[in-house]
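Writing this down once: the sequence line spells out the residues, with the fold written below as integer tokens. This is how one looks:
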Amino acid sequence: MLIRKRRGWEIPESAATEEALFHDRRRLLKGVAAGSILASGLAGLRGIRPAFAEDAVTRNPRYTLDRPITDAKYSTTYNNFYEFGPDKTVSDAAQALKTEPWTIKIEGMVEKPITIGVDDLLKRVGGTEERLYRHRCVETWSMAVPWTGFALSKLVDMAKPLGSATYLKMTTFMDPAMAPEQNKFFYPWPYVEGLTMAEARNDLAFLVTGMYGKPVPKQDGAPLRLAVPWKYGFKSVKSIVSFEFTDKRPNTFWEALQSSEYGFWANVNPDVPHPRWSQATERVLGTDERRPTLMWNGYGEYVADMYKGLTKERLFV
């Protein structure tokens, strides 16, 4: 008898949003040029880059959810993007983000540094796929999103880092004229995040170009952002312009701003509270539901082995 062991984040197929229903919605939206359906359902999907054709991507069946997909009207209008404001209602302000042209530097400890456009990058890595991931914010809200993109490991392989590189530093844009919050001196701009090389090569680490079968909206990190679903959301840096391979641990944005509350690792752990609130439960966007928070956000089988022997590290803040 074949016994299948269900992963920690999975539920029966019958309890999740049916794939056919989700794709039916895509086909419906393609046929609607204007009107109330489009206005109410995709209000947050303004300002997207038309260069990407996300509709034809194939969903990777390896990644499943423990809840229905969050409606786009919540995940595209309830956003953190501090370059455009400290509140969640930054979707309007984020439309000032200029995403064309957009070039990315791959630099540091690599065989040959390059600067490449996003579209050329997608060709180099072999295109995109869709993955269903949970996203858990350190502020205790969560959502479930169909991301489109490619494994970060593909970029790592393309970059050919030197063996001495131990970290990957990722940096977002710096343009105070476009993003007014970057004029505030008390923030350590530009936004910087980092992973160890083991984390960057992990299969779950994902570079996002789209969501809900469409190019990723500006407020959600266009044209290229990171998704690392076992970590709190602030690790998923938006609007990336640089990947630097280095042997020094990056001093990340929130760690530089408030190291007593935010550490480098930021792995989801319900047993370790934030200094100002509990992490034991999470609020699901678009519902009144609170769910118990899962260790590693439910992705332990993929990531737990990377952290063995790090008992002296501040893993989860």
Observations:
- The chain has one domain: 39-302.
